[in-house]
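User: Could you go from structure to sequence for me? I need the amino acid at each position, not a summary. Structure tokens:
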């Protein structure tokens, strides 16, 4: 019995360590690369939807409007807001000629896909740079850096979206989970298997959007305007990544666990709409992570402490090595000291949200 558990725990730990070490090898090579000085994209529309975001627009929209890029328009869709969003946008329109406001009324579907679709239909550029109303670019070069990551074959560029640093364990976890997720999807894209991206920092062509028929195939789902678009349209040859620090886009983190759980449940519920191959990939990642800790715990309960400690230590050393590289390059070095605790948190995360992935909501979620 102990030998069987030992073999299974070792196998699960090896598989899980492989997910960290091998796919990320090409991602690590991207760190430190200088952005291209020129790019084939002549113009872009920055696009974001705003529903009751008056305060966030006051705080963050100026940083988006002040991007250092000549051929640039900012399209904001006021998605049936009931606060002062409309008035705030009207004030910005008077000051910025590059701002175009689109109004969407009478919501008939969950989420913001209908509003985004309307804004895209009314935008003029052949390229769209997506973000959110609660996001702030790291620099005035954000748009230029994202565009410079494209070449003449590119239809999609995946960026990085960290969260603002705050005090407390909730913030540490939110930042680590964003780092962990970014490590996964950026590594997969760098290795030729792009499967998702984050809508707060993503560049895509209108041609790609039209080819996958926009959000029509998953319009009934509240989430997925970003990752499902990538999952449907991204290929090994048409997808690039941008990890330039000037191109990061920071978001405001949740301040309550309940708010975080609600957000993640909505996000993860759309993963069942991914390609089957991507579901298998992510399922193996999650299962091997949970199996590693279960195997170590069972070995300890059977008294095989030396084997449990050896398996745990070898995997942790490999994970720590690779995550240290990623965290240092993506501005989250302070989290590495907490990795043993956060690593257990990933296991709990997978167990906690497995039901959301297996039994997605009907899409009846707020905005």
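Assistant: Here is the amino acid at each position, in order:
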């Amino acid at each position: 019995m102990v030998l069987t558990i030992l073999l299974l725990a070792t196998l699960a730990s090896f598989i899980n360590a492989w997910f960290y070490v091998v796919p990320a090898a090409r991602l690590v090579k991207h760190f430190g690369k200088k952005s291209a000085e020129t790019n084939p994209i002549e113009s872009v529309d920055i696009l974001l939807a705003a529903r009751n975001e008056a305060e966030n627009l006051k705080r963050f929209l100026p940083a988006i409007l002040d991007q250092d890029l000549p051929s640039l328009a900012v399209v904001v869709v006021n998605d049936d807001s009931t606060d002062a969003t409309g008035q705030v946008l009207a004030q910005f329109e008077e000051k910025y000629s590059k701002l175009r406001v689109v109004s969407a009324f009478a919501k008939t579907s969950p989420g913001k896909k209908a509003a985004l679709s309307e804004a895209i239909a009314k935008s003029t550029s052949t390229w769209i740079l997506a973000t959110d109303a609660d996001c702030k670019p790291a620099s005035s070069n954000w748009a230029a850096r994202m565009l410079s990551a494209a070449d003449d074959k590119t239809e999609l560029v995946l960026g990085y979206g960290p969260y603002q640093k705050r005090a407390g364990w909730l913030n540490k976890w939110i930042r680590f989970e964003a780092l962990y997720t970014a490590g996964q999807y950026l590594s997969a894209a760098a290795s030729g298997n792009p499967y998702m991206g984050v809508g707060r920092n993503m560049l895509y062509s209108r041609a790609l959007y039209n080819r996958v028929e926009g959000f029509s195939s998953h319009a009934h789902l509240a989430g997925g305007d970003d990752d499902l678009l990538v999952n449907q349209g991204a290929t090994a040859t048409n997808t690039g990544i941008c990890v330039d620090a000037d191109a990061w886009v920071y978001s405001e983190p949740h301040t309550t666990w309940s708010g975080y759980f609600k957000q993640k449940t909505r996000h993860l519920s759309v993963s069942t709409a991914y390609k089957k191959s991507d579901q298998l990939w992510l399922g193996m990642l999650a299962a091997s992570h949970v199996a590693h800790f279960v195997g170590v715990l069972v070995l300890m309960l059977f008294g095989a402490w030396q084997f449990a400690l050896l398996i745990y230590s070898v995997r942790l050393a490999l994970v720590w090595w690779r995550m240290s590289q990623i965290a240092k390059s993506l501005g989250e070095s302070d989290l590495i000291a907490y990795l043993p605790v956060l690593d257990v948190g990933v296991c709990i995360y997978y167990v906690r949200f497995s039901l959301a992935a297996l039994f997605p909501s009907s899409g009846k979620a707020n905005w």
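One structural detail worth keeping in mind: The two ends are 51 Å apart (CA to CA).
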